[in-house]
Specification:
The chain has helices at 7-23, 40-56, 71-82, 102-108, 120-127, 136-147, 167-176, 191-196, 241-244, 258-277, and strands spanning 3-4, 30-36, 59-65, 89-92, 156-160, 180-184, 200-203, 221-224, 228-229, 235-236, 250-251. By secondary structure, the protein is an alpha/beta fold. The strands form three sheets. It has a six-stranded parallel β-sheet. A hairpin with a 5-residue loop joins strand 9 and strand 10. Helix 6 crosses helix 10. The longest helix has 20 residues, at 258-277. The radius of gyration is 19 Å and the shape is globular.
Length: 279
Amino acid sequence: MATVIDGKALAAKVKEQVRQEAASLERKPGLAVIIVGDDPASRVYVNSKRKDCAECGFVSEEFALPASTKQEDLLALVGTLNHRDDIDGILVQLPLPRGLDEREVLLAIDPAKDVDCFHPYNVGQLTIGEPVFQPCTPGGVMEMLKEYHIDPAGKKCVVLGRSNIVGKPMALLLLHAHGTVTICHSRTPDLAAECAEADILVSAVGKTGLVTADMVKEGAVVIDVAMNRNEAGKLCGDVRYDEVKEKASFITPVPGGVGPMTRAMLMRNTLTAAQNHQK
């Protein structure tokens, strides 16, 4: 029976550390969150980030724009925030409504304020092993491994999914930790065989029930990054939790696993940005 990795408890611990460090700064760290349109899921995320900021002693400013916002107006707002000394981090809630160019908006954010670690400069720094910020979700996974004394060095690590937000940076962080990394995706010929070799399996596909017990090696560490809803509308991940936990040594639940850590790492990145700006 697997040990359940408690992301909620660890996130609280990380945020408390961040709060203590932030209290020693000359001014409170400032996070600007831009939300365009009225996507319900995005609204939930933005509200939770405001709550996290309050817990960490940060100043949080929200800019809620209508879905009809023009690209040039959104870029102008980002430009204004780039030049504000009291704003350390800028977060544009994705996805943006149709008609807006996400890439252009993300490129417009000052890399020193890119607390999501999406800007090509920060992605490049991550690639060469000198990150300014940890990408929030993969960084949260690495923090969980560290907390539970799981060392990727010399381990066979398999990452399911090749997105720019999770899959690719997750593979890089595991590689920097001396893991032997395989990235699997929709074109991988024998997914089950690849997964069955993993000492550490990270799934970030977004497909309910994708990872079954027969795909998991006895004693493997299983990290479920996905946030899906099953036919009953219940929140779940990619992993068939009840059956896989019987074989794994460690497993993350959904919810209560990686999700809270993603938010906690955003707070840590905002603190890092504030510390850099106040040097």
